[in-house]
Each structure stands twice: as C-alpha cells, then as structure tokens.
Amino acid sequence: MKLNVANPATGCQMTIEIDDEQKLQAFYDKKLSQEVDGDVIGMEWEGYVFKIMGGQDKQGFPMKQGVLTPNRVRLLLSKGSVGCRGNLMKNGERRRRSVRGCIVSHEISVLHLAIVKKGKEEVEGLTTKIIPRRLGPKRANNIRKLFNLPMEDDVRKYVIRREVKREKSGKDYSKAPKIQRLVTPLTLQRKRRRSALKRRAALKSKAEAAEYEKLIAKRNREARESRRASLSKRKSQSKKE
C-alpha cells in the first residue's frame, strides 16, 4: 500500500510504500477522518498524528465518506460528487457509479494522509522546506484572518498579487484576484437604496390596499342603498294595487 502524506502547513507531500502487513494493521478498519499515530509506520514518525483524508482501491475507484462498508458499491451520484465527474450531465441528473466505502481494507492501494500534529524530528522533503501558495485568499474575511487585520483596515491593500511573465513581449505584469464579500461605501449605499426601495414599495402597496378597501366599501354601500330603494319602490307599488 502507498501512503501519500501531505503537510498542509508547508504545502509539501511525499509518498511512502509499505509492504509490511503488521504496520498496515493500524490503518485497517479505520474510517475516513479518523486519526492514526505516526509511530506505527516507523520511529522516524514518532509524535506525528495522521488524519485519513481519502484513498483509492486497486482498480482506481475512490473512497466515499458516509458509505459504511469496506466493499465497492454502486450509488446514484450527482454531478461533482466524489466518484462522478459529471461530464455531459445535466443539472439535477444522477448516474450510477461505483465507489469504495469509507472503511480502509486490504483492497486499498493508495491512502491519503494529512499531518494533524507534528512530531519532534524533521522529515526531509516534508517539513524542512516550504512551498509558497500560488494563489492567496480571495474572500475579504480570509484576507483579514491571514494578516490579522482589524475591520477598519482596507483589505484591498493586502491582496496577494502574483507575477506573470509574457514570453512574446517579455514584459511582466501582476495579477490579483477580485475580492469577494468586500464591504465598501458604494455597497453600503446600494444596500440602503435597496432597503429604501423595499420600504417605498411596501408603503405604496399598503396605500393602494387602503384605497381599494375604501372603493369596495363605497360600492357595497351604494349597492345596499340601491337595494333598499328598489325594495321600498316595490312595497309602495304593492300598496297602491
């Protein structure tokens, strides 16, 4: 079995191939998102804690969270879910696809692990170097969280830009993502305008409903008066006869 160990703190990952069944016994019958001590693989991993993130079986079918079986099953899956790419699928369409359950067994060929807790010793190629992220955060609150900014600071000054090289012209330029959920004076003004329009529409509909009620009451009153007039006319005619 191959173990693909990833370190989210540095962005590095490495693959370990283990053939010893005694070491792999610690992973068998474990489910996705469960944690395993690293010293079961070897003493160089003492103090490390791994979290099982996923895996594939020997035929390449992925493990799916929530399927409580070590066997392979066929499920109706929607577009974009694990085990279903959704090529040429319509919105709302589901197709039956084969996936492996979330329980680790001897049928798994590759297991994906993430380091939750770092041990005492450094691992060459995994904890010794740092691979910078190609793209920075895009959402305004995530940028504030990354740089520990207060709400008063302008987030647009802290967007992570990346340099792009043009092969033909040779001129370099930088690109930055569009900040999502950014609150500016313009967005607040638009929000106030929307709320004012809503209030205006509610007052207008309320006034129109009151006018309609008055009109209905007037017509009902006129209908009652005409009915009384017609009844009195009939009574007077009957008395004359």
Distance between the termini: 113 Å
The main sheet orders its strands as 2-1-7-4-3
Rg from Cα: 35 Å
**Helix-strand topology string:** EEHEEEEEHEEH
Q: State the helical fraction.
A: 25-40%
- Total strands: 9
Strand pairing plus helix content: what structural class?
alpha+beta
* Main beta-sheet annotation: 5 strands, mixed
Query: What's the overall geometry?
Result: elongated
**pLDDT averaged residue by residue:** 91
Q: Which spans have pLDDT < 50 for at least 5 consecutive residues?
A: none
Question: Strand share of the residues?
Answer: 15-25%
Number of helices: 3
Outline the fold blueprint.
Layout: E1 2-7, E2 12-17, H1 21-24, E3 35-37, E4 49-57, E5 72-78, E6 94-100, E7 108-117, H2 140-147, E8 162-165, E9 172-175, H3 185-240
Parallel strand pairs: 1-7
Antiparallel strand pairs: 1-2, 3-4, 4-7, 5-6, 8-9
How would you describe what is shown here?
This protein is an alpha+beta fold. It contains three helices and nine strands; from the N terminus they run E-E-H-E-E-E-E-E-H-E-E-H. The mean pLDDT is 91.
Short description:
With about 240 residues, the protein is an alpha+beta fold. Helix content is about 30%, strand content about 25%.
